[in-house]
Design goal:
This protein is an alpha+beta fold and about 350 residues long. The chain has helices at about 1-25, 95-145, 155-210, and strands spanning about 35-50, 55-60, 70-75, 80, 85-90, 215, 220, 225, 240, 245-250, 255-260, 275-280, 285-295, 300, 310-315, 330-345. The chain is about 40% helix and about 30% strand.
């Protein structure tokens, strides 16, 4: 029994010793903090990205009868470009094929016009020659009839009168035929010339469209690729549609913040509240602005996330073009309230 009692006592002593050692290590030492009177600033977190206040979108050109485009060239993102320099180009193979067809159509119409003009001229000269001959016969018959009747046999006189009537009828017929043929030729030639003019106009339009497929920068600036609703950027070989924004050339002299706050904090924010934030690329510099507008609806944070947020726009007090670029992410706080003369610890 004495050995069992000694073992139990030793175990108790060991447990007490371990508890005393660990309790000394885990109990924190007393730390003194300074308390002072001041204003307590109430804030909510805000995240977002920088964007240019003024930005020129670049996308497919407005060309007739073309709605689907294939990207053939894109200026590298971040490149500084001058106004008038091509920054985006699209495939023109389909337009070039149509251009060849319309040129062939115009050349064919030109040849048909030349042939029709020559044929009409030959036919007109033949009819004019027949008209001249008929006129000569009528004049001859009229002269013959001027001879006194008593000096001419009745049969001869009747023949001359028939010749005069025949020549007169032929002259009338040829005059009518010439007028009708001339009108028909004019109509046919007008139609052919209209076809050629339409083909020539289409050729000019296609040439202008091919030239417009190389989109030039309207302003000097830095090329920024636009993102879709799925946060994807276009690349060479992708398709695009008319009106789609593919690139942007922003004005870096004036920036703004496009931020978002959690739905639970939406009721605390107001237009005009001060915003302080730091860029992830420059965390050592603090920038200041204020809320200029707040969206009236709650949105999903992104198509990948179900988190509900309220979007807002931050007007910056100052822009630093050396450190600020569109698309840079920032984190900060919005001052939603202030308690004056509070005891701050």
């Amino acid at each position: 029994m004495s050995r069992r009692s000694l073992a139990a006592g030793a175990a108790v002593v060991a447990v007490v010793a371990l508890w005393w050692v660990f309790s000394r290590e885990t109990v924190p030492k007393s730390v003194w903090a300074e308390a002072e009177r001041g204003d307590l600033v109430l804030t909510v977190e805000v995240n977002g990205v920088l964007a240019a206040v003024n930005s020129t979108p670049v996308g497919p050109p407005q060309v007739p009868d073309v709605f689907d485009f294939k990207i053939a060239m894109m200026a590298p993102e971040g490149t500084d470009v001058k106004a008038g320099v091509p920054v985006l180009a699209f495939d023109t193979s389909e337009l070039e094929r149509t251009l060849l067809e319309k040129r062939a159509e115009s050349e064919s119409a030109t040849k048909r016009i030349e042939k029709k003009e020559k044929d009409a001229e030959i036919a007109r000269k033949n009819d004019e020659l027949r008209l001249a001959e008929a006129t000569s016969r009528r004049r001859k018959a009229a002269l013959e009839l001027e001879v006194p009747e008593e000096l001419v046999k009745a049969q001869q006189l009747r023949e001359w009168r028939l010749n005069l009537e025949d020549a007169t009828r032929e002259i009338s017929f040829l005059n009518t035929k010439l007028a009708a043929t001339r009108h028909a030729d004019d109509v046919t030639l007008a139609s052919l010339r209209g076809q050629k003019a339409a083909a020539d106009r289409r050729v000019a339009e296609i040439k202008a469209s091919i030239e417009a497929m190389a989109v030039k920068a309207e302003r000097s600036g830095t090329v920024v690729y636009a993102t879709s609703w799925r946060d994807e950027k276009k690349k060479v070989g992708d398709s695009a549609w008319r009106g789609e924004r593919i690139l942007e050339i922003p004005d870096l002299s004036a920036m703004k913040g496009e931020g978002e706050v959690d739905e639970s904090d939406a009721g605390k924010i107001r237009v005009g509240q001060k915003v302080r934030f730091r860029l992830e690329a420059h965390p050592d510099v603090e920038f200041v602005g204020k809320i200029s507008s707040i969206w009236s609806t709650v949105q999903r944070q992104s198509w990948r996330s179900l988190v509900k947020v309220v979007k807002l726009v931050v007007e910056l007090d100052a822009t630093d073009p050396r450190k600020m670029r569109p698309g840079m992410r920032f984190r900060g706080v919005i001052e939603t309230g202030r308690i004056e003369n509070a005891l701050l610890v």
